[in-house]
Amino acid sequence: MLGIVLIGQTELATKLAENNPTVREVVQRCEIATLEPLTDGKLAGYLKHKFERAGGDIKQILDESALDAISQRLTVKSRTKAGTHEHSLLYPLAVNNLVAHAMNETVYLGFDKVDGDIIKSI
């Protein structure tokens, strides 16, 4: 028995769509799992876990305003005919990149912690 794991962006799901006859046989044997954004309070837990794994303490690196600013920064509002729609980009890769950039900027500026103003400025 052989198992293959494919990890990709949302475009992979389009290529492996059930209505695509060229990959029908493969798709019937696939299990698709979608990673949801870190909404509904999951962001703080995720970052706490990441810092603990690296031997750090989130409270020494980020203040409370930083978490709110990350959520705001990675939430996009768009307008459609039906009205305003919010789309979350709070995926781990985007969060990691933003926090790493903010940490570097904080050190460069000589501050002790990443705060909401630093997140908003980058």
TrEMBL record:
This is Uncharacterized protein. It comes from Moraxella caprae. The lineage of its organism: Bacteria, Pseudomonadati, Pseudomonadota, Gammaproteobacteria, Moraxellales.
